[in-house]
From TrEMBL:
It comes from the Bacteria. It holds the Pfam family MerR_2. This is Chaperone modulator CbpM. It comes from Halomonas gemina. The lineage of its organism: Bacteria, Pseudomonadati, Pseudomonadota, Gammaproteobacteria, Oceanospirillales.
Length: 104
């Protein structure tokens, strides 16, 4: 069941992924994930590999980064900037919806 949730990108509440699980869910090598973490583009940039656990938010961000890099041949930093803008846009929409100013 956990494999199915990873493949579809659905994590339940407090469930977390390991480095290898996150890489597999994004169809990338673990080194790809490590490079983005060490560059500060993914997760919290913690240097402690043994403590790396990834949430559904990390999974969503990693998949966006990967897709932008692949589809647009974007360098990781540009993909991260675009991802930041997408995430900020979503936060603002959520705030508008919560304030009753938007009905998506």
């Amino acid at each position: 069941m956990a494999q199915q949730r990873i493949a579809s990108g659905e994590l339940i509440d407090e469930a977390t992924l390991t480095l290898e699980e996150l890489a597999r869910a994004c169809s990338v090598e673990p080194d790809w994930v490590v490079e983005r973490i060490e560059s500060g583009l993914l997760a919290d940039g913690s240097p402690y590999v043994a403590s790396w656990r990834f949430t559904s938010r990390d999974l969503t961000r990693a998949r966006r980064l990967c897709q932008l890099e692949r589809d647009f041949e974007a360098v990781p930093e540009l993909a991260a900037l675009a991802t930041d803008l997408i995430e900020e846009n979503q936060r603002l929409r959520d705030r508008l919806r919560a304030a009753g100013l938007r009905d998506d």
